[in-house]
Write a structure and sequence with these properties.
Strands 3, 4, 5, 6, 8, 9, 10 and 12 form an eight-stranded mixed sheet that branches. Strands 13-14-15 form a three-stranded antiparallel sheet, with no helix packed on it. The protein has about 200 residues and is mainly beta. It is built from one helix and 15 strands.
Length: about 200
Amino acid sequence: EAKGNEPGAYVGMLESDGRIAGAARRVSGIKRHDFYPTLARAEDGTFWAAWEEELETGTDLVARHLSAELDPLGPAVRLTALYPRGRVGAQASRPDLAVAHGHLNIVFALERDKQQQVMLLRVKLDDPELEKGLQPLDDKEKRARRYKKPEDRMIGKLERVSTEYGTNSQPRIACSKQGCFTVWDDEKAAALAVFVDPTPGQA
Protein backbone atom coordinates (compact mmCIF):
# COMPACT_ATOMS: atom_id res chain seq x y z
CA GLU A 1 0.00 0.00 0.00
CA ALA A 2 1.62 3.26 -1.15
CA LYS A 3 -1.10 5.70 -0.13
CA GLY A 4 -2.79 6.74 3.10
CA ASN A 5 -1.30 7.36 6.53
CA GLU A 6 0.23 3.89 6.92
CA PRO A 7 2.01 2.89 3.70
CA GLY A 8 3.84 -0.41 3.81
CA ALA A 9 3.75 -4.13 2.98
CA TYR A 10 0.41 -5.79 3.77
CA VAL A 11 -0.96 -9.34 3.76
CA GLY A 12 -4.57 -10.44 3.34
CA MET A 13 -6.55 -13.66 3.14
CA LEU A 14 -8.96 -14.63 0.37
CA GLU A 15 -11.75 -17.19 0.47
CA SER A 16 -11.59 -20.08 -2.01
CA ASP A 17 -14.05 -18.22 -4.26
CA GLY A 18 -11.88 -15.10 -4.28
CA ARG A 19 -13.83 -13.02 -1.78
CA ILE A 20 -11.86 -10.97 0.73
CA ALA A 21 -11.73 -12.78 4.08
CA GLY A 22 -11.07 -9.98 6.57
CA ALA A 23 -9.01 -6.82 6.70
CA ALA A 24 -5.46 -6.66 5.37
CA ARG A 25 -2.69 -6.51 7.99
CA ARG A 26 0.44 -4.38 7.71
CA VAL A 27 3.55 -6.50 8.33
CA SER A 28 6.26 -3.92 7.62
CA GLY A 29 7.04 -0.61 9.24
CA ILE A 30 5.28 2.51 7.99
CA LYS A 31 7.30 3.49 4.93
CA ARG A 32 6.82 4.36 1.27
CA HIS A 33 8.65 1.81 -0.86
CA ASP A 34 7.81 -0.78 -3.52
CA PHE A 35 8.77 -3.62 -1.09
CA TYR A 36 8.07 -6.41 -3.64
CA PRO A 37 6.59 -8.58 -0.86
CA THR A 38 6.47 -12.36 -1.15
CA LEU A 39 4.60 -14.90 0.99
CA ALA A 40 5.00 -18.66 1.45
CA ARG A 41 3.37 -21.28 3.65
CA ALA A 42 5.51 -23.45 5.91
CA GLU A 43 4.89 -27.15 6.55
CA ASP A 44 3.32 -26.39 9.94
CA GLY A 45 0.64 -24.22 8.31
CA THR A 46 2.12 -20.89 9.34
CA PHE A 47 3.39 -18.34 6.82
CA TRP A 48 6.57 -16.38 6.26
CA ALA A 49 6.56 -13.03 4.50
CA ALA A 50 9.66 -11.38 3.06
CA TRP A 51 10.29 -8.09 1.31
CA GLU A 52 12.97 -5.55 0.41
CA GLU A 53 13.30 -2.41 2.48
CA GLU A 54 15.44 0.72 2.33
CA LEU A 55 17.74 0.78 5.35
CA GLU A 56 20.83 2.78 6.31
CA THR A 57 23.33 1.01 4.01
CA GLY A 58 21.07 0.43 0.99
CA THR A 59 18.18 -1.93 0.27
CA ASP A 60 18.10 -5.13 2.32
CA LEU A 61 15.87 -8.13 3.03
CA VAL A 62 13.35 -8.27 5.87
CA ALA A 63 11.11 -11.17 6.94
CA ARG A 64 8.27 -11.84 9.37
CA HIS A 65 6.68 -15.01 10.73
CA LEU A 66 2.87 -15.14 10.58
CA SER A 67 0.24 -17.53 11.90
CA ALA A 68 -2.07 -19.59 9.71
CA GLU A 69 -4.52 -16.68 9.99
CA LEU A 70 -1.76 -14.17 9.06
CA ASP A 71 -1.40 -12.77 12.57
CA PRO A 72 2.20 -11.74 13.41
CA LEU A 73 4.08 -14.32 15.49
CA GLY A 74 7.03 -12.01 16.04
CA PRO A 75 8.55 -8.73 14.89
CA ALA A 76 9.80 -7.98 11.39
CA VAL A 77 13.46 -9.05 11.34
CA ARG A 78 16.30 -7.81 9.20
CA LEU A 79 18.02 -10.64 7.32
CA THR A 80 20.82 -8.82 5.49
CA ALA A 81 23.12 -5.84 5.85
CA LEU A 82 24.86 -5.73 2.46
CA TYR A 83 27.55 -3.10 2.27
CA PRO A 84 28.38 -1.03 -0.81
CA ARG A 85 31.63 -1.32 -2.70
CA GLY A 86 31.27 2.16 -4.14
CA ARG A 87 29.33 5.29 -3.41
CA VAL A 88 25.94 3.70 -4.11
CA GLY A 89 24.49 1.34 -1.53
CA ALA A 90 23.93 -2.33 -2.30
CA GLN A 91 20.44 -3.20 -3.55
CA ALA A 92 18.81 -6.52 -2.61
CA SER A 93 15.74 -6.32 -4.80
CA ARG A 94 12.63 -8.24 -5.91
CA PRO A 95 12.85 -11.22 -3.53
CA ASP A 96 10.91 -14.44 -3.91
CA LEU A 97 10.44 -16.93 -1.07
CA ALA A 98 9.89 -20.66 -0.62
CA VAL A 99 9.81 -22.46 2.73
CA ALA A 100 11.20 -25.98 2.34
CA HIS A 101 13.73 -28.43 3.74
CA GLY A 102 13.74 -26.64 7.10
CA HIS A 103 14.84 -23.33 5.56
CA LEU A 104 13.66 -20.00 4.32
CA ASN A 105 14.88 -19.99 0.71
CA ILE A 106 14.94 -16.44 -0.63
CA VAL A 107 16.19 -15.59 -4.11
CA PHE A 108 16.79 -11.98 -5.07
CA ALA A 109 18.73 -9.77 -7.46
CA LEU A 110 21.79 -8.20 -5.82
CA GLU A 111 22.95 -5.02 -7.50
CA ARG A 112 26.25 -3.57 -6.35
CA ASP A 113 28.91 -1.56 -8.14
CA LYS A 114 26.62 -1.38 -11.22
CA GLN A 115 26.69 -5.18 -11.49
CA GLN A 116 23.80 -7.54 -10.82
CA GLN A 117 23.62 -11.21 -9.84
CA VAL A 118 20.96 -13.64 -8.68
CA MET A 119 21.62 -14.69 -5.08
CA LEU A 120 20.07 -17.22 -2.70
CA LEU A 121 19.77 -16.66 1.04
CA ARG A 122 19.03 -19.85 3.04
CA VAL A 123 18.07 -19.43 6.68
CA LYS A 124 17.34 -22.36 9.00
CA LEU A 125 13.89 -22.08 10.52
CA ASP A 126 15.33 -22.89 13.94
CA ASP A 127 18.11 -20.29 13.68
CA PRO A 128 17.92 -18.33 16.98
CA GLU A 129 18.87 -15.13 15.15
CA LEU A 130 15.49 -15.23 13.39
CA GLU A 131 13.83 -14.20 16.66
CA LYS A 132 15.29 -10.68 16.64
CA GLY A 133 17.16 -10.27 13.34
CA LEU A 134 20.38 -8.41 12.62
CA GLN A 135 21.02 -5.70 15.19
CA PRO A 136 22.64 -2.30 14.52
CA LEU A 137 26.37 -2.16 15.14
CA ASP A 138 27.42 -0.52 18.40
CA ASP A 139 29.95 2.34 18.49
CA LYS A 140 32.89 0.00 19.15
CA GLU A 141 32.01 -2.20 16.19
CA LYS A 142 31.55 0.84 13.93
CA ARG A 143 34.99 2.18 14.88
CA ALA A 144 36.59 -1.22 14.22
CA ARG A 145 35.06 -1.37 10.75
CA ARG A 146 36.61 1.94 9.75
CA TYR A 147 40.02 0.31 9.53
CA LYS A 148 39.09 -2.72 7.44
CA LYS A 149 37.05 -3.52 4.37
CA PRO A 150 33.33 -3.67 5.25
CA GLU A 151 31.86 -7.16 5.12
CA ASP A 152 28.31 -8.25 4.43
CA ARG A 153 26.29 -9.38 7.41
CA MET A 154 23.39 -11.80 7.10
CA ILE A 155 21.37 -14.40 8.94
CA GLY A 156 21.91 -17.77 7.30
CA LYS A 157 24.04 -18.56 4.28
CA LEU A 158 24.29 -16.47 1.13
CA GLU A 159 25.03 -18.29 -2.14
CA ARG A 160 25.55 -17.04 -5.67
CA VAL A 161 23.06 -18.57 -8.13
CA SER A 162 23.89 -16.89 -11.43
CA THR A 163 27.42 -17.63 -12.59
CA GLU A 164 27.90 -14.29 -14.32
CA TYR A 165 26.79 -10.71 -13.94
CA GLY A 166 23.78 -9.78 -16.01
CA THR A 167 20.40 -8.10 -15.95
CA ASN A 168 18.57 -10.38 -13.56
CA SER A 169 15.34 -8.49 -13.11
CA GLN A 170 13.06 -10.81 -11.15
CA PRO A 171 14.15 -14.29 -10.01
CA ARG A 172 11.60 -16.86 -8.84
CA ILE A 173 11.93 -20.00 -6.71
CA ALA A 174 9.84 -23.15 -6.20
CA CYS A 175 10.72 -26.24 -4.18
CA SER A 176 9.89 -29.96 -4.22
CA LYS A 177 11.05 -32.81 -1.98
CA GLN A 178 14.14 -33.21 -4.16
CA GLY A 179 15.27 -29.58 -4.02
CA CYS A 180 14.53 -26.08 -5.27
CA PHE A 181 14.45 -24.54 -8.73
CA THR A 182 15.30 -20.92 -9.41
CA VAL A 183 14.44 -19.25 -12.72
CA TRP A 184 15.06 -15.76 -14.06
CA ASP A 185 15.14 -13.81 -17.28
CA ASP A 186 18.50 -12.27 -18.22
CA GLU A 187 18.40 -9.71 -21.04
CA LYS A 188 21.87 -10.88 -22.09
CA ALA A 189 21.18 -14.62 -21.98
CA ALA A 190 17.39 -15.22 -22.24
CA ALA A 191 15.62 -17.52 -19.73
CA LEU A 192 17.72 -19.48 -17.25
CA ALA A 193 17.03 -22.12 -14.59
CA VAL A 194 19.14 -23.58 -11.79
CA PHE A 195 18.59 -26.54 -9.45
CA VAL A 196 19.55 -26.03 -5.81
CA ASP A 197 20.53 -29.17 -3.88
CA PRO A 198 18.91 -28.89 -0.43
CA THR A 199 21.67 -30.74 1.44
CA PRO A 200 24.62 -28.43 0.70
CA GLY A 201 22.29 -25.62 -0.33
CA GLN A 202 24.28 -24.94 -3.46
CA ALA A 203 23.24 -24.33 -7.05
